[in-house]
Amino acid sequence: METLLLSRIQFAANISFHILFPTITIALGWVLLFFKLRYTQTGQERWMEAYRFWVKIFALSFALGVVSGITMSFQFGTNWPGFMEKVGNIAGPLLAYEIMTAFFLEAVFLGIMLFGFSRVPNWLHTTATFLVAFGTMMSAFWIIVLNSWMHTPQGFEMINGVAHATDWWAIIFNPSMPYRFAHMVLASFLTVSFLIAGISAFRWLIGGRTEGVRVALKTAVYTAALLIPLQILMGDFHGLNTKEYQPAKVAAMEANWETHSGVPLVLFALPDEENRENRFEIGIPKLASFILTHDWNGEVKGLNDFIGEDGEVLHPPVSPVFWSFRVMVGTGVLMLLVSWAASAMMLRKSRGVAGLPKPMLYALVGMSFSGWVATLAGWYTTEIGRQPWLVNGVMSTKEAVADVPAPMVLSTLVAYLAVYAVLLTAYISVIFYLARRMSRGERIDPEYPKSEAAVARAVPGE
Prior knowledge:
By secondary structure, the protein is mostly helical. The protein has helices at 3-20, 22-42, 45-78, 81-115, 122-151, 168-172, 177-205, 211-245, 247-254, 287-293, 318-347, 358-366, 370-384, 397-400, 406-439, 452-456, and strands at 156-159, 162-165, 260-261, 265-272, 277-284, 299-300, 389-391, 395-396. It is built from 16 helices and eight strands. It has a two-stranded antiparallel ribbon. The N and C termini lie far apart (59 Å). Residues 448-462 have low confidence and may be disordered.
């Protein structure tokens, strides 16, 4: 295996591990703020019970996200030096803005949020929670700005082969940024909703039937049920934007080889890139044209339009993009069905969590990390779909790779994968460990003494 492919796999492994944790912290900070505001408003201990459990998950996720993000940024120098050499005048400031507006903010107030409940006034603790949540959102904003600019570059000029900014407004608010940012934020809230719902359902099943578990579970299920239709709508907007600026990616997503009207929506196929056709294709006539153009007979570009004059393939590999897109959509549909079914059961006769039968509770536990699956599948779709470009139309991936021996890259790749497997196993194990201990009413955190009685108090009549 050559250095280019190994470096791509290594960066994919790093970013796949890293993105799991910001996907949680981006939204979980705001959920914690909601819990804290409800506690302040009502004085009910159940909201603080929910807060004190999930703030631990936030801290754990935040720590792993920071460490894995630093590791990922190192690879700009070790594996991809050409990237900063050519577009560093734009990428560098955007990364610096993230540090100044996000990391500094989080570093100052995270300690107050985690350890200051009984040491500072309530308003200050609530403010710290808000600022940490705001910091995680700003971090996501600047990273999405840079990533979006790589897909739809604007506001720059090339001088002696180096990109120079001419319009920072156009760079930041490039054509795909609003859609990508909204899509990512909604993905984060859905990921957190199913994580909270799944872990809360697990605690309920093993006997942790406290008021805090009840409100966390209800909040998560209802939030998921409300947001998944918005995510589907935003996905449609994002798809239309991608069709305009990256038609080769859309063609790969649909495994559409020829430009024509009335394109079917391919549900299942085995894309054959050697013969440039699909085998065993199952599709719905004209539906892809309707989705992508809002016209049953709309024209959609095919992959064969993206072949260079010398025969060079200028479109992404089809099978990975085709299948990752379907995994993302399939997981989203499953989220819709589960969240709506659970909401209907809780709303029926106003029974709340007591209206959830055991099979639904087990289904929610099984969906705990479904947001990770959808996020990774969507990330693979958008990033593999950008190939062969690193910066679309400006810089190819092979231009940026370092001249490093392939065995060196392979050895570090194996080391990364081994460490990530251990850390991911430990992370999930700790979450369930905390869930079991708090469900038994064990005292694991003296920071919130006012809530100790609520932890041990079972829900009356259930």
